[in-house]
Each structure stands twice: as structure tokens, then as C-alpha cells.
Amino acid sequence: MTITTLTSRELNQDVTRAKNAAKTGPVVITDRGKPAHVLLSIEEYRRLVGQRRNIADALAMPVADEIAFEPPRTIVDLRPADLS
């Protein structure tokens, strides 16, 4: 992973360079010499954010077609009841 650092001015002058650099790693954007923002590829962002889900997403029921459920068959041993 390559970390690229660009000033705000460099970002404004060459956005394509920043976008291409984000494909290989984070791009730190500085403002007055201090890190202010980070540009990530969407894949990297999703990887980072995907680790933390909110409670509503975690508890949401998936679509029924997505649930693989095949319960095992139960064999019931039938025998006459002893009513004596």
C-alpha cells in the first residue's frame, strides 16, 4: 500500500492524479502543512466501513431466498399407546 500526500492546491490542480493515487493506497490531503483529509478508493472505504454495522443493519432480516435452511428429517418411532 502506497500512501500519497498532496497539498490542497495540488489536489485542486490535478484531481485525476489524486484519484489514480487512491487506487494504490490512501491519499493524505494537507491544509497548511497539516493532514486534513484522506481520499480512499471505494473498495478500501467499503472494507473499512463494512467492519462496523449499525444495530438496525445487524438485526435486519435477510430476504427469505438468501436463507439456506434445510432441517434434518426426523424419524418418529410410532408404537401403540399402553392405556392399561
Automatic annotation (TrEMBL):
InterPro entries: Antitoxin_Phd/YefM, YefM-like_sf. It holds the Pfam family PhdYeFM_antitox. SUPFAM superfamilies: YefM-like (SSF143120). Belongs to the phD/YefM antitoxin family. NCBIfam families: phd_fam. Antitoxin component of a type II toxin-antitoxin (TA) system. This is Antitoxin. It comes from Propionivibrio dicarboxylicus.
